Amino acid sequence: MNSNKPATTQAAHSARILDGNAASAAVIERVHDSIERHVAAGGRRPGLAVVLVGADPASQIYVRAKRRDCERAGIEARDFDLDASTSQETLLDLIQQLNDDPAIDGILVQLPLPAQIDEVAVTNSIDADKDVDGFHAFNVGRLALRQPGLRPCTPRGVMALLSFHGLEIRSKHAIVVGASNIVGRPMSLELLLAGATTTVTHRFTHDLEDHVRQADVVVCAVGKPGVVRPEWIQPGAIVVDVGINRMADGRITGDIDFEAASQRAAWISPVPGGVGPMTRAMLMLNTAEAAGLQVELPYHPHSTG
Ligand SMILES: Nc1nc2c(c(=O)[nH]1)N[C@@H](CN(C=O)c1ccc(C(=O)N[C@@H](CCC(=O)O)C(=O)O)cc1)CN2
């Protein structure tokens, strides 16, 4: 070992990790505590209907994990696994039964649905008070009008992940890359609600690079590896990667090169282990709230306005 080597090499900067596994475990524990207190006091255990249509491999993984989360949280999961050829009418009939069932507090229909079924018709057929995915037009409207009710799980999970790590968003310039109904649009509403100056980019946006370069907070939800290049990220930015891309070898990766972006960002969420577990934890939280329970959270939610 050469002890005379000049100490000129600087340690490479590495971002701090937005740890979705730790944050989600903390939320699920609080949901569990609240439910067990309620049940010990003679209350009914919350019930979640978990509906999977078809056998999409990714959906099967997510639904299996959600059913496991229900066990951890003390929520009664009722499983409905329907054939890929199920008609829209059959699915709407099932949702009507679940809407009318007093033992069911939340209804989750895993997306995407097979092509013969209209997703909008299905999500809007769920009783808005049981809409634990927060996709019903009424619940999205509430979020838009600063009267949040049941909120979409992924955007709520991103906000919870930031809060869990003590990150303040108010007055920051945030960019949401991708404008899907499930993530991008409600994500922009969450950021607005938290007081961020919010830009949403989408497939018709010119000069994505210019927008990303100006952002203090980058939330990327496209589902395309490399869509945001690491060199566009402002030094010290917060990077939240919502993308989940399955590689040929079975591994999953996000939309942004994690190693390279870590050299510039102050904080970054990994894939796996970032937003995905938070999406699931928010489903548990929404179900407890739909059942009328108050859950004391392990973080201070962003103040709204
Ligand atoms: N009804 C819904 N459908 C879909 C939603 C949703 O919120 N409600 N969102 C996405 C997928 N999604 C939720 O279901 C989801 C995505 C990822 C994860 C997750 O736990 N990811 C893990 C990795 C899991 C793996 O190995 O693949 C991680 O990132 O660490 C959970 C849920 C579309 N559909």
TrEMBL record:
Belongs to the tetrahydrofolate dehydrogenase/cyclohydrolase family. Catalyzes the oxidation of 5,10-methylenetetrahydrofolate to 5,10-methenyltetrahydrofolate and then the hydrolysis of 5,10-methenyltetrahydrofolate to 10-formyltetrahydrofolate. GO terms for cellular component: cytosol. Residues 18-133 form the Tetrahydrofolate dehydrogenase/cyclohydrolase catalytic domain. Residues 152-292 form the Tetrahydrofolate dehydrogenase/cyclohydrolase NAD(P)-binding domain. HAMAP family: THF_DHG_CYH. NADP(+) binds at G178, A179, S180, I244. CDD domains: NAD_bind_m-THF_DH_Cyclohyd. InterPro entries: Aminoacid_DH-like_N_sf, NAD(P)-bd_dom_sf, THF_DH/CycHdrlase, THF_DH/CycHdrlase_cat_dom, THF_DH/CycHdrlase_NAD-bd_dom. GO terms for biological process: L-histidine biosynthetic process; methionine biosynthetic process; purine nucleotide biosynthetic process; tetrahydrofolate interconversion. PANTHER family: C-1-TETRAHYDROFOLATE SYNTHASE, CYTOPLASMIC, C-1-TETRAHYDROFOLATE SYNTHASE, CYTOPLASMIC-RELATED. This is Bifunctional protein FolD. It comes from Elongatibacter sediminis. Homodimer.
